[in-house]
Automatic annotation (TrEMBL):
DNA helicase Pif1-like 2B domain segment(s): 265-310
Reactions performed catalytically: ATP + H2O = ADP + phosphate + H(+)
Single annotated GO MF: 5'-3' DNA helicase activity
Boundaries of every DNA helicase Pif1-like DEAD-box helicase domain copy: 52-178
Pfam families named among the record's database cross-references: PIF1, Pif1_2B_dom
Organism expressing this protein natively: Trichonephila clavata (Joro spider)
Gene: ANCCAN_11822
Protein name: ATP-dependent DNA helicase
Length: 365
């Protein structure tokens, strides 16, 4: 999908952009400058609790947008329409033009068959109303459909292509349900009958293999709800033969005037998808995932790690994914302020969650 009335034609990508990869992973001054500005650009659109972010002329952020030739918004179908409205008004102000997006070119990538914008305590109707399709901008969007699954094509795995096609058919509503159970029967893949059987299939002989970093880095389970993920993680951690450590957070309210209304015990009970719980239980060998950016691009939100040593104030881990794969690093406790909670409070805790399993709720951008 593309804005700017089609004035800019995007050429097809013939090969992976190796120069871009070297800029992201390199240690040169040019690479560091590139990563610095990319992080600044991405942080522009982090909405505050008031659902807005002010970018003014004359600022560093404003200068980047003024000189930007192309803006790519990935997973745009998950974003609230107000976020696009904010970008539209900001670009009009910065570029001095009343045209849509100030006349700049914006590419919006996404699939409406996947997760829609999250509306806290909202109904399905509220989610649909928050979609980009219900924005005044939608009439100015030109739609382009990608028809070839390049990932399954390059892998050369026939079963992977069949599975991808079946998912598309389910998303299009073309696969009938079993009238007796109301479930969809998958003709490809393997079916298990219980969570324990699933664990044994994905993580066989975990007591002997849990220290093998490569073995863990190629395994993950997807689940649809965070509570299911938590139960599975507790089950698999109990199978690890190492000693268990519990790390409790320090929680405090940001507004001193409201401190008397929210006792510490209540703050300790709060747990959201982007916030580690009050009581973090870990074992050596447990796979974990960062939920905050610490040192991009090496340690970012979504980086998978494996616990190597547990200490009082830091955790020593080995990186399983990304450009720092195989490195040993230390993770400290940091202040974390949840962005989607009506109560403004701060939690000092390790910025990680146990992720033997991935919930669909984690969409990392």
């Amino acid at each position: 999908m593309c804005c700017s009335s089609g004035k800019v034609k995007l050429p097809p990508i013939l090969k992976p952009p190796e120069p871009l990869c070297s800029l992201l992973k390199g240690e040169t001054a040019q690479s560091k400058d590139f990563v610095k500005h990319i992080r600044l650009f991405n942080n522009m659109f982090a909405m505050t609790s008031f659902k807005s972010n002010v970018i003014c002329k004359g600022t560093g952020q404003g200068h980047i947008l003024e000189t930007c030739k192309l803006i790519v918004w990935d997973e745009a179908t998950m974003s609230h329409r107000n976020a696009f409205h904010a970008l539209d008004k900001t670009l009009q102000d910065l570029l001095g033009s009343s045209a849509i997006m100030g006349g700049a070119t914006v590419v919006l990538a996404g699939d409406f068959r996947q997760t829609l914008p999250i509306v806290t305590c909202g109904t399905p109707a509220d989610q649909i109303n928050a979609c980009l399709k219900n924005s005044y901008l939608w009439h100015h969007v030109r739609k382009f459909s990608l028809t070839t699954n390049m990932r399954s094509l390059t892998q050369g795995d026939l079963s992977a292509g069949q599975f991808a096609n079946k998912l598309l058919q389910i998303g299009d509503g073309k696969v009938p349900e079993d009238p007796s159970t109301g479930l969809i029967i998958m003709p490809c893949g393997q079916i298990v009958n219980s969570p324990d059987e699933l664990l044994s299939k994905v993580y066989p002989n975990i007591q002997q293999n849990f220290k093998d970093q490569d073995w863990f880095s190629h395994r993950a389970i997807l689940a649809s709800r965070n509570d299911v993920v938590e139960k599975l993680n507790v089950t698999i951690q109990k199978q690890l033969p190492e000693k268990e450590y519990a790390y409790k957070s320090i929680d405090c309210i940001l507004n001193d005037d409201e401190a008397v209304q929210y006792p510490t015990e209540f703050l300790n009970s709060i747990q959201t998808p982007d916030l580690q719980g009050h009581n973090l239980i870990l074992k050596v060998g447990a796979p974990i995932m960062l939920i905050r950016n610490i040192d991009a691009p090496r340690l970012c939100n979504g980086t998978r790690l494996i616990v190597k040593k547990l200490m009082q104030h830091v955790i020593q881990v080995t990186v399983l994914t990304g450009c720092a794969k195989g490195e040993d690093v230390f993770i400290p406790r940091i202040p974390i302020i949840p962005s989607d909670n009506t109560i403004q409070f701060k939690r000092i805790q390790f910025p990680c969650v146990v992720v033997s399993h991935y919930p669909f709720a984690y969409y990392l951008c």
